[in-house]
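ok here's the first one, seq then struct tokens
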Amino acid sequence: MGMYDNVRFEFTCPKCGRMLDGFQSKDGDCVFDTLKPEDVWSWHRLCPCGEWIEFEWEKDFAKGPKRVDRDFGERTDKPEGKA
């Protein structure tokens, strides 16, 4: 089993509408800590419907995070989630 940290973040899946939490990241110490999105570069999770949800910070941190689509390149939509 891999080590990771939890990220306190909620987001509604765009595919099925389910409210998601339980995001993970490997950017921290990977000791199962619970971190804020501001403490990591990227965070992700898989929705039960099969949609992969991943966020990373804009290069200009003040612009906030953006959703990344690993299959089709970067998306430009901003997350409606809350930290």
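and now the second one, same deal
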Amino acid sequence: MMNALHRVLCVISAALLAPLAARSPESPRARLAALLAAQVGERQRVARAGVRREGVLRNQIEALKSIERGVLEREERLRTGVR
């Protein structure tokens, strides 16, 4: 839930900051908006990388579970003498 809210807030923040940063780059307000926009962009990039990493880890866990099931099934077959 928090990740979805964070993503929405980042998108809204970026949309609000972009026009401010583009107006007159020499003004302090525009420089602050540009800095904040860069920080929001970096947070979005980090969040996307985290989501990708989470997917990779979930796939690895599923693969390990599958291997574990196979090992347990093979051990059961060897114990009961069924091939």
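notes on #2: The CA atoms of residues 7 and 48 lie 9 Å apart. The two ends are 48 Å apart (CA to CA).
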